[in-house]
Structure formats: structure tokens, C-alpha cells
Automatic annotation (TrEMBL):
This is R-spondin Fu-CRD domain-containing protein. Residues 29-125 form the R-spondin Fu-CRD domain. Belongs to the R-spondin family. GO terms for biological process: Wnt signaling pathway. Pfam families: Furin-like_2. The lineage of its organism: Eukaryota, Metazoa, Chordata, Craniata, Vertebrata. GO terms for cellular component: extracellular region. Its main location: secreted. It comes from Knipowitschia caucasica (Caucasian dwarf goby). Keywords: Disulfide bond, Glycoprotein, Heparin-binding, Secreted, Sensory transduction, Signal, Wnt signaling pathway.
Length: 207
């Protein structure tokens, strides 16, 4: 006769204690080493994690291969456990305070789930990025006219001009601005005098 395993002995020992209506608890106990009729699993095999789920005023234990959303896996010397993430907006976390995936409607930034990305960062799918990710860049545009910050294009020695570039198809992604480059430039010192505009008569000749 083949000897019973520790897991089979656990199930065999608790089955006579279970009422017919407690079949759900019996199924749950098939994966655990120690079981309680009221609380389900209380000790799991080494490879599994104990997940405690509130059931009214008590907790019901189940042994799982992976922890459910909103929890992280904590390995211990005596037993592995599923521990709840601190933030309710977190779907998966590496530790209690460091989230790795947020619930729908939130952006992930440095382990935190935020309703919107901080100033200076860029939203990308479900993350907030410190640096804007662009597709392969295209050619720079032509330099703009040399002018002052106040808009004058002559009468001064130095001004500024700029140029831009986006992706190779001249379109930026939805979350990244155009790249801009500026430089110092020489302006026309003298402005051309503004001439009077000639009035045109009905016959097409200046009046």
C-alpha cells in the first residue's frame, strides 16, 4: 500500500470533521498543510502563499501559487504570505509601499499611483516618464527670422532665432512636444523707413 503524503493526511484528517455544507472548505484545504473548519488554511506548503480573505467577522485562508491583485508575495522562514499593498489604487506592488502597476484611471510614477502626472513628466500609457520618448527624429526646420524677444526685427545688434524638429514623419507623439533649438543671431541695425501706401483708383492707376 502506497504511504499517504503529508497533504493527503491533512485532507483525510479534516474530512470527517467537515459537515456536508462545508464542501467548499474541504476543497480549499486540499492545497494546505494545516486546516481549520472555520478559517480554512492556516499553513501552506513551502511553494504556496497563504492568502487571508475577510469572510464576515472572520478570515478565510487559501493557499495560492500567486497572490491576487492588490497584494504582493512575502516569503518567510515559516510560511509565505500574500500581503496587501498600502495604496488602494495599486493593482500590483513589489512591497507594501512600492507599486508596480496601478488600477485603471491612475498613472504610475516612482512606485506611487497618481491621478495625474507631476509637472515636468510625460504620461505614457499607464506610466509617468521623466524623459519624453520620441520616435526616430526627422530633419530640423529652417531657422526663424532673427528678432528680439519683444518682436522687433531690426534696430538692434543681436537677436534670437529658433528651429524645431519632430518625428521622422513630421508628427510628434501625443505626449511629447516638438524639440526646439535657439541661437543668437545678427539683426539689421537700421530699419527700412515705412513708405506711404499709394491709393489705387477705380481705373487701376495710383491716384
Amino acid at each position: 500500500m502506497t504511504p499517504m503524503s503529508e497533504l493527503d493526511q491533512c485532507v483525510s484528517a479534516i474530512s470527517p470533521m467537515m459537515a456536508p455544507s462545508a464542501h467548499r472548505d474541504t476543497d480549499d484545504c486540499r492545497s494546505c498543510l494545516e486546516c481549520s473548519r472555520e478559517n480554512g488554511c492556516v499553513r501552506c506548503p513551502e511553494r504556496l502563499f497563504l492568502f487571508l480573505q475577510r469572510d464576515g467577522m472572520s478570515h478565510h485562508g487559501t493557499c495560492l501559487l500567486t497572490c491576487p491583485p492588490g497584494h504582493y508575495e512575502q516569503k518567510g522562514k515559516e510560511m509565505n504570505r500574500c500581503m496587501r499593498c498600502r495604496s488602494q489604487d495599486c493593482d500590483h506592488c513589489f512591497s507594501r509601499d512600492f507599486c508596480t502597476k496601478c488600477r485603471s484611471g491612475f498613472q504610475l510614477y516612482k512606485g506611487k499611483c497618481l491621478s495625474r502626472c507631476p509637472l515636468g513628466t510625460f504620461p505614457h500609457h499607464t506610466d509617468c516618464l521623466d524623459h519624453c520618448l520620441l520616435a526616430p527624429l526627422g530633419e530640423w526646420s529652417e531657422w526663424s527670422m532673427c528678432q528680439r524677444d519683444t518682436g522687433e526685427m531690426c534696430g538692434y545688434r543681436w537677436g534670437r532665432q529658433s528651429r524645431t524638429r519632430g518625428t521622422s514623419n513630421n508628427q510628434t507623439t501625443s505626449f511629447c512636444p516638438l524639440q526646439t533649438e535657439t541661437q543668437r543671431c545678427r539683426m539689421r541695425k537700421r530699419c527700412k523707413p515705412k513708405g506711404k501706401t499709394a491709393l489705387i483708383g477705380h481705373n487701376g492707376m495710383p491716384s
